[in-house]
Each structure stands twice: as C-alpha cells, then as structure tokens.
Amino acid sequence: MATVLPPPSKRQKREILERSKVQQDVSTTSITGSIRARFVDSEGAELAETVEIPLADATEKNVSALLNTLLQRDREDFTPYRFRIRVPNSDIVIDSYPSPSEFLEVLRKHGIENPFETTISLTAEPQSVFKVQPATRMAHKIPGHGQPILTAQFSPKTGSILATGSGDCTARIWNTETGTPKHTLQHSGWVLVCSFDPSGTYLATGSMDKMVRLFDPDTGKQIGKPFTGHNKWITSIAWQPFHLWGEDGPRLASASKDATVRIYTITGVTHHVLSGHKSAVTTVRWGGLNHIYTASQDRQIKVWNASDGTLRHSLNSHVHWVNHITLSTDSVLRTAYHDHTKVVPASTEEKKAKAKERFEKAATHGGKIVERLASASDDCTVYIWDPESQGSKPINRLMGHAKQVNAVVFSPDGRLIATASWDNSVKIFDKDGKFLATLRGHVAPVFQVAFSADSRLLVSCSRDTTLKTWDMRTFKLKTDLPGHEDEVYAVDWSPDGTCVAAGGKDKAVRTWRH
After folding, report:
1. Composition of the chain by helix, strand, coil, percent to 5
2. Which of 136, 363, 365, 456 has the maximal Cβ count within 10 Å?
3. Does residue 314 carry a pLDDT above 50?
4. Averaged pLDDT, 71-100
5. Predicted TM-score (pTM) of this structure
6. How far is 301 from 308, CA to CA, in rounded Å?
7. Are 142 and 174 spatial neighbours (Cβ–Cβ below 8 Å)?
C-alpha cells in the first residue's frame, strides 16, 4: 500500500505563503540574455559600478532592489526608485521603464542595434527622499467636543494644526504639539466635513445646517457670510488645486445630500451648479487637470469640466452606492507647494510654478500626464478609471472584499491603493489593480485609512476602538495604537509625517507620534 503524505500543517502553509511573498518578480516567459547597465543620478553622476542584469529579472522593482543592494542599504532602509533609460551617444531619454518582455524591442526602436553589447545608463529617481517614522506612542488626549468626532484633517502647512468636526455643531482647531484647543468654530448642525485649502490659508467646513462656512485657521474668525444654496446637508468639500487659482482667488466645490455639487468663489458667490446625479452625492474631488469628479448614491461617477460646468463622462459600472473616490494625485494636490524641504517660495507666481511642477512630476507616466481615479462602493468592489484616455471604460475591477467598501486611497507616490471595508480588513493593490495583500488585525469594520507622506506606512481606524499602522514593504502590522474608548470614525496622517490624529465616538482627539 502506497504511503500517503499528510497534508501540510498550518506552519508549513504559512512558510510557503511567506516564501511566495518575498519571491522576486520573475517573469514566467523564458527570456534569455542579459543587459549591461550603469546607474546614474539625475545630474549624471555615477551611483554604482556597471552590472549585468538578466533580462528575465529586469523588472523595475527588481532593478530598484539591486541598486539598493549595491548601495549597501539595509532592507528596512530601501528607497523605491523609478528609472529612465538614457540611449548612448544621443540625447534620447526613454521615460517609461519597459517590462522584461518589451525591453529589447524598446531599445532597438530607439536605435540600439545590439542591446546585449551596449552599456545603457539608467537614471535613478528616488520616489521617497525622506522617511516617516511609525507612530508608536500616544502624545495627547485632547477633550473638548461634546459629541462624537466625525471628521479630521491636518493643515498642509504643518503637522501642528488639526481641524475636527463633530456632532456638537462645532468644528475645532487644535495645536497638536502642545495638545491644546486653539479655536471653536460654530455651526447650527453637525459638522460633517473639514477641509483646508492647499495653501493652508482657509478652512472650509460643511454641516447638517446645509451651509459651507469659511474660517481663518490662524484667528478662528469666520470669513464673510455662510455659503448657501444647498437644501440638504453637505457631504464633501474639494478645493481648486493651487496651480489653477485665478486672480480672484481659489474656488471650492461642495457636494450635498440634495444630489447637486455647487462651485463657489471665495466670496461665496455660486459660480456653477453641477446637477445630474439622481441621489445624494457622497464625494467630490477637484483634479489637477481642472476636472471635477463626483460620486453618488445613484451608482454613478461623473466627470465635469470645472471651467464651464459641462459633463465630460459618466462612469456607470458600479451596481450599488458609490461611497468614496480618490485621485492618484490627491496627496500632491492637497499639499501644493509644501514639501519635505519646508522651503516656501516668496511670490504667488513661484508658489504656483512649484505646485504645478510637483503635480506634473507625480502625474507624468510614459511622457504624458495621467490622473487616475479609484472608486469604492457598497457593491463590495473598487474600480480604477482613467477618464482622459479610457473614457467611461474602467481600467480594472478590484474584488475580494466580502462586505461594503468604506474608503479607498492612493499612496502619495501613486503606486499603491488601499481599501477599507466592513469585512474588518484592509486590502492593498498596485496602481493597475493587481492584488498585493490583505491586512488583517481589526476585529470590527474599518472606517478610514491614511498613508504616511513617504508611502511606506498606512494607518487604519476601526469600530474596534483601535488604530493600526502597517508596513507597506512586508504588509504586516507595524504598531497597534490603542487608547480610544469607543469607535474611531476619522484618522489623518500629517503631510509632514510627524503626527497621526484620530477622533470618534469617545469625543476626544488623540494624537500619536514616534
């Protein structure tokens, strides 16, 4: 009688899974040969000695890992790189890095007759030039609100200013360094939305009282009269990207339960009303190409021209409410000219130029500007769209969640997508929709997620009263952040990476630092 091997144990299965995760991106097709490459920085200075890279393993991820190894970095300190190929003896630069199967064809197309005998230069551009430390300790518990906290957002200028909105009909501005309240901003209904403009000069708040109010974050004083026009409560606010601001200052778009989106000037005058949805508008986003994206409970996402309010596309693939949308450029549009260098240009024109440069650098792929959109829905799926090139046809459909998807966010470098769901999990996909990992640890629905500014970490908040930070290299739990006494509804990671803040049903703001 033949001996039947027992099925693998749980530990063996886990080890097999680990090995499959850390394995390199090895192409399945048998690609033979190798290329000689030298690594240079953007100035042309050599970074490492010339190496031979087998074509079968020459994916951008593997080449990035090879360069980090040549630079003798520890795995924890690896910097993700994007590569451009410089064609020898010419000024031609190939912007988009080809896949291993396309590599030889792309080189030959650009005049390299014998790629195996030619040394090519790879210009390495670091995608993350600074490192955010994980939040590990609670810095402050700040009481003040009299009802649950429903929304929280940091100022793009600094990690020391936080705005929160609550069911007690107020928004509050806090100093997270000292752990003290700064200003209390009054509404006559629950405050559902707080949104700083990209320069950090204004704070817009939207409420159940059907109005949008504008405040000065430094003084706490209301600017002008409330913005009226909606006949139901405000669900979302989006500011015009800084590089598109006109002479008359910024504009902002507000979405409402009344199925419309209104575009206001800074003085509160309604510029356009976008009416086309048949049910409540859940989220509005203002893209860097001057398009407005709206998601609704009528199962549709609409793309509008911001300048004249005309409809460009209607995206109809979802079969249930669309809860949330995000843009691949959200992070860079939110922070405009504020970056890790802390250098603020002097004039408005220089600020606009820097904001536009940052947006174009983040959005340029293959020589053209690509602004992708991801949408999360109650139909348990997420879709990725590129309305500019694909029109109303989705790029990919991301499945795997067993219950409704609450939120979706792109990482600041645009490479990862994180989704939060009622099935107690967070899922990570790459920018094209390839599934990478499920982050399990929460024991109740996950409400929101936020990436750190360097895209290496993710924080999630849940009904189970905890926040958790996750490592985006290993897709494992980095730190558990207990402390809240009830459900946590809102979380944000400051754009400078120094602070995580959250609020929820226990009415207190809590901040965490390294």
Report:
1. 15, 40, 45
2. 456
3. yes
4. 76
5. 0.82
6. 18
7. yes
